[in-house]
Amino acid sequence: MDSTTATAELGWTAHPPSGWEEVSGYDETMNTIRTYQVCNVFEASQNNWLRTKYIKRKGAQRIHVEMKFSVRDCSSIPNVPGSCKETFNLYYYESNTDSATKITPYWMENPWMKVDTIAADESFSQVDLGGRVMKINTEVRSFGPVSKNGFYLGFQDYGGCMSLIAVRVLYRMCPRVIKNGAIFQKTLSGAESTSLVVARGSCISNAEEVDVPIKLYCNGDGEWMVPIGRCMCKAGYEPVENGTVCQGCPSGSFKPNQGEDSCLSCPFNSRTTSEGATNCVCRNRYFRTDTDPLDMPCTTTPSAPVAVISSVNETSLNLEWYPPHETGGREDVVYNVICKSCNSGGGACTRCGDNVQFVPRQLGLTEPHVYISDLLAHTQYTFEIQAVNGVSDQSPYPPHFASVNITTNQAAPSAVSFMHQVSRTVDSVTLSWSQPDQPNGVILDYELQYYEKDQSEHNSSTVKSQTNTITIRSLHTGTIYVFQVRARTVAGFGQYSGKLYFQTMTEGKQAFAGLQMKSDCKRIAFMM
What we know:
Elements: E1 13-15, E2 21-26, E3 32-39, E4 48-51, E5 55-56, E6 63-71, E7 87-95, E8 113-119, H1 126-130, E9 137-143, E10 150-157, E11 161-170, E12 173-174, E13 177-179, E14 182-184, E15 187-188, E16 197-200, E17 202-203, E18 207-218, E19 224-233, E20 237-240, E21 245-248, E22 253-254, E23 264-265, E24 270-271, E25 281-282, E26 306-313, E27 316-322, E28 334-342, E29 350-351, E30 357-359, E31 369-373, E32 380-388, E33 401-407, E34 418-424, E35 429-433, E36 445-452, E37 461-465, E38 469-472, E39 480-489, E40 492-493, E41 500-503, E42 516-518, E43 524-525
Parallel strand pairs: 41-43
Antiparallel strand pairs: 1-4, 2-3, 3-11, 4-10, 5-10, 6-9, 6-11, 7-8, 7-10, 12-15, 13-14, 14-17, 16-18, 18-19, 20-21, 22-23, 24-25, 26-27, 27-31, 28-29, 28-32, 30-31, 32-33, 34-35, 34-42, 35-38, 36-37, 36-39, 39-40, 39-41
Subcellular location: Cell membrane
Domain Fibronectin type-III: 301-411, 412-507
Protein name: receptor protein-tyrosine kinase
C-alpha cells in the first residue's frame, strides 16, 4: 500500500470523527497528495485513532511501514498546555477478513498490537509556517511475524499537532535470480530481521547438478546470500550471458563434458550434424580410435610403402623399403609382410605355409626391413608390404601395399633330421636315415662322416652312398664312433646332421638292431 498513489479520498476511519481529518496537502516536491492531520493541542486527554483500510498480507511474514510526517514544535504554540505531544503511536491488528467496523476492533492497545512510539527528528515552528518551510520526517518500523490473511494499521494521537503525509506498507523479498547455474524464484524474507529463509534452486535449461542441494538464503533485507551447490552446462552446451543461459554448441563445434568450458571447434577432418554436439563425427574415410581424444583430428590409413629393395640368397630373402609418403596423420605406422607362392604356370598365388620364417616377425614391424628364410627353391613368390596404422582396422578398404616378385635360386638340401642303427657286428655298423625335409632338388648321393669318439674330428673318414642305408666296415671291436650324414644335390652338399654315437660289438656278444636316435639328440648308444 502507498497512500501517495491515491487519486481520491483515502477513506480511512477516524475515531473520534473530531480527531484526524483528511485533507489535500503537498509532499516535499510539492506534489498534491491526500494526507491526514490532527491538532487538538488545546484540549486535554486526547485519544485520536486513525485506521487504514484492510491490507492483504500476500504471504509476507514481516511487514515494514514507512511513514512521512511533520510535527509542530509544542514550544512554538502560544499558550499551549503541558499536555501537548510531539509523538504518536503505531499499531497493527491482524484479521483473516475485512471485518472492521466503526467500533471494532476496539480502539485500544489490546486488541491492537503496539509497534512503537514514533518521534520526529525535526519539528516546525510558527516561523517555518510563515516562510512555508516544510520539515518532513521519515521513519520506518517493522513488525512480525504475521500469519493471518491481512491486517489494519492504526495511528494514535494523544495530544500533538501533526500531519501524516504519506504511509507506505511493504514487505521485503529476494528477487528472482540466476546464480551458479540455477534459478531461484523470488522469496519473501523471514519473520524476523535476522531470519534466513532457505530457497531451493533448479538448474537452468540444459544444465545439470554438480553439487547438491542447490540453495540460497534470503536475509531480512531481501538480499541473497550463502550460495550452496551449483549447476553446470551439460555436455554439448556452453554458458553464455554471464552463466545465466546454457546454449547449444553451434554447428561445427562440440563440448564433450559437463562444465563451465566453452565449446571447441571441431578438429580437422570432422564435423557436426546438429547443434548441441558432444563430439564431432569423422568425415568419409577418416576415423578415430577408441583411445584417441575427442579433440584430436580424425585420421586415415597410410599410403603404401615405397622403394622396396629385395635381395635373394638361395632360399632366403632380405626386404627393405621406405616409409609411406602419407602416414594418414598418425605416428603409429607399422608394416605387415604377406607372403604368396605362385605357380610357374601362371595359376593363382596362395598364402605361404607356416614353415616360412620371418625375422624379427611377419606382422606389426616397426622398422622397414625383414629377413625371410626357409623358402622353397626354384619358386616364384610375391611379397606384399602393407602399411597400417591405428585406424586401418576401421577402414572398409584393404591396406595400401607395395609388392615385389622374386624367384628363389637352387639351394642345397636341408640337414638330415633322423638316423638310426639297423645292425652291428664286432667290426661293422649298418645305419639308415630319412631324406631331408627340404631336398631342394634331386638327391644325388649322401656322404657319411665318422670317427672314433676319443679321436679328433680331423681324423674322420668319409664314405658315400647312393641310398639312405650304408654299412661301415673295418671298425674296431667294442669302440664308440661318432656318425654324421649329409645329402648332395646339383647345388652341393647340405649341412651335416647332428652327431650320433654308436658302438661296435665286443667279442662273443650278439648283435641286435632297432636303436633309433634323432640327429639333434647327442647321446651314446651302447650295443652290448
